[in-house]
Amino acid sequence: MAQVTAWDAEVDLLVAGAGPGGMAAALVGALEGLEVMVCEKSEQIGGTASTSAGTLWIPGNTQSRRAGYDDSPAQAEIYMDRLVGGTKGRDLRSAYLETGPAAIDYYDTRTDVQFLPCGRHPDYQQNMAGAAVTGRAIVPKPFDGRLLGEDFRLVRPPIGEFMIFGGMMVGKDDIPRLIGRFKSAANFAHSARLFLRYLSDRLKYPRGTRITMGNALVARLFYSLRKRKVPIRFDTAIREILREGGRVVGAVVESGGRTLRVRTRKGVVLATGGFAHNTEFRKAFMPQPVPVHSLACETDTGDGLTLARAVGARIDGDQHRGGAFWTPVSVTRRTGGWRGLFPHLALDRAKPGLIAVNAAGRRFVNEGASYHDFVEAMFESHKLVPTMPAWLICDSAFVARYGIGVVHPGTRNLAPHEKSGYLTTAPTLEELARKIGVDPVGLADSVRRHNGFALTGSDLDFGKGDSELNRFNGDPEHRPNPCLKPIEAAPFVAVAVWPAEIACSAGLATDADGQVLSEDGDPIPGLYACGNDMASIMAGTYPGPGTTLGPALVFAYRVAMHAAGRGDAAGRATGASEELGREERAAAR
C-alpha cells in the first residue's frame, strides 16, 4: 500500500482487545519500556475470561512446586504429544512448556497478577502417559475490587448464575462452608463475614467487591495496568491494519465517531477474543449442525481474524477438532424474559446418582468426563441419535444433596424451577420420558442398568468413577464408588443440556513468539496475536483445567518480549523460579 503520511498518534505497541491476553501483552510491554495503547471496543475489560473459572494450566509452575507438588514440564510434553498427536505445532507446545513457569513468575513478582496453587486437580486424560494429578493448575488470588475505586465498574461481571444474592461472588472453597453454615462455628463465621462484606459493598458498588476466579484475574491485570498508567481506550475498535513495504506500521482506529491513524514502532497485537459470534467462522470451523449457544463474550465477533486475513494472514482451523473448546450448558429463564446459560463444568455431572441420555433414552458418555469430552461425546452420539439436547437424569434426593445446574444444594421444592421451564419432574420414569420426548423403554433400561452398576460400584459401560478426575469431582463420602448411586427416589428430574463453546481453538497461525504467519508460512513483520485470536497449541484437545488461559498469558508474555527485542529472555527463569532453582541445587549438594 502507499505510504501513510498523516498519523494522529504514535506508540510502540497497539493492542486490540482488553481481555487477559491483550492486557497481559500490554502489561509486559510496558514493564519492558514500551509505550503501549490498548483499544477495547466494548465499555468494559475482561472479555470471556471475566465469566470463567480463572484456572491456568502451567506444568512445572513455581507456586505448586513450593507447596510440595512436584511436576515436570518434560512429562507434560509427553502428555501433550500423546494427546495432540503429530509434529505440527510441537515447536509452539515446547515454547509454552519452557516459558510457562518463568512467565507466571514474571507476573507474580513484578505485577499484582498473582496466583495460588490448586494442589490436587487432575489432568483430564489420566489414561495417557505424562498425565498428572497434582501441580499443574493455578488460580488467581482473590482480589479486592475496592482497590480500583470507580474503575471497578469497568470490570465485566461474571454470569449471574455464578453470584448469589444478586451480586456476591463465591469461590469453590466457599460453597461447602456456605452450605454447611449451621454445622460449625467456623463455617458460620466465614459465611457471616462474606455476607456482611457484601452488604457493605452494595452501599457503593453495583456488586460485591470480593472477587474470585476469572473475574479476579482480569481485575488484577486491569489494576496493574492502571498503576503503570497504560491507557485503555474504551468503545474503540481497530478497523484496518496498515502496512508499508510488507511490514505492519499501524492501524486505523475508530473511537467515539472519529477515525484515527495510529502509527506503531514495534507492532500491533490482535487479542480480540476469537470468532465465537461470527457466523461465517462458526460455519467454517465448528461441527454441523453448528451449536446455537455460546459462553463467549458477545463482542467476540472475529475482528482479529478478519483484520489479519485482509493482510494475507493464515487462519489455522483444519487440524482443530471441532474448532473450539466445549461445555454442556443448561438454559435458564427468569421473570421478564431474561435468559442465560449455566455451564455444567464440575459441580453435578460426576456426582453419584446422575446419568446423561440421548433421545433414545440411552447413556452415551461417562458423565464425569471433562466438560469438553462430554460435549464431544454429544456430537458423536448426535450423528446416530438426536442428542441436542442431551438430558441429565436424577432424582429429587440427588438435587437435595448436590443441586443440579442453577438449582442449589438443599433445594426440596422444585416447583418454581419446573414452572420456569428449567427442569422437568415426574412421579415415574415413564412419565418423565414422555414429558421430555425421550424413549420410555430406553430410559427405564438405562436407569435399571445404571442402578445395578451403583450396587456393585463398577460402571461396566462407561467407567464412571474409575478415573482420578471422576473421583475428584464425585462425592468422597459415598461408597463404594464416589460417582455411582441408584436413581430411585421419586419425583424424578430431567434437565436439558446443549453444547456451547467456552473459547475458540481455531485461529490465526503464529510462530512461537506470537508473530502472525502469512499464507506462505512466513511471519508478517509487526503483527502479533495471542489469546483466542491465536490458533490454540492444543489443536482442539483439552489436557486439563486452564487450557485457554494458560496459553493466553504465556504467549502474551512472549509476544511482548519479542516486540521489546527481548525474545531471547522470554523463557529464562526469573524471580521466584530462579530462586527455587538455586534452592533445589543447594539441596542436591
TrEMBL record:
Name the domain of life: Bacteria
**Where is the region Disordered?**
569-589
Q: Where is the composition biased (Low complexity)?
A: 569-578
Q: Protease among the record's keywords?
A: no
Cofactor or coenzyme needed: FAD
* Domain FAD-dependent oxidoreductase 2 FAD-binding intervals: 12-549
Reply yes or no: does the keyword Cytoplasm apply.
no
Q: Which InterPro entries match?
A: FAD-dep_OxRdtase_2_FAD-bd, FAD-oxidoreductase_2, FAD/NAD-bd_sf, Succ_DH/fumarate_Rdtase_cat_sf
Q: Please provide an example of a Pfam family that matches this protein in its UniProt record.
A: FAD_binding_2
Q: Which UniProt keywords apply?
A: FAD, Flavoprotein, Oxidoreductase
Point to the regions of Basic and acidic residues compositional bias.
579-589
Protein name, please? FAD-dependent oxidoreductase
Q: What is the lineage of its organism?
A: Bacteria, Pseudomonadati, Pseudomonadota, Alphaproteobacteria, Rhodospirillales
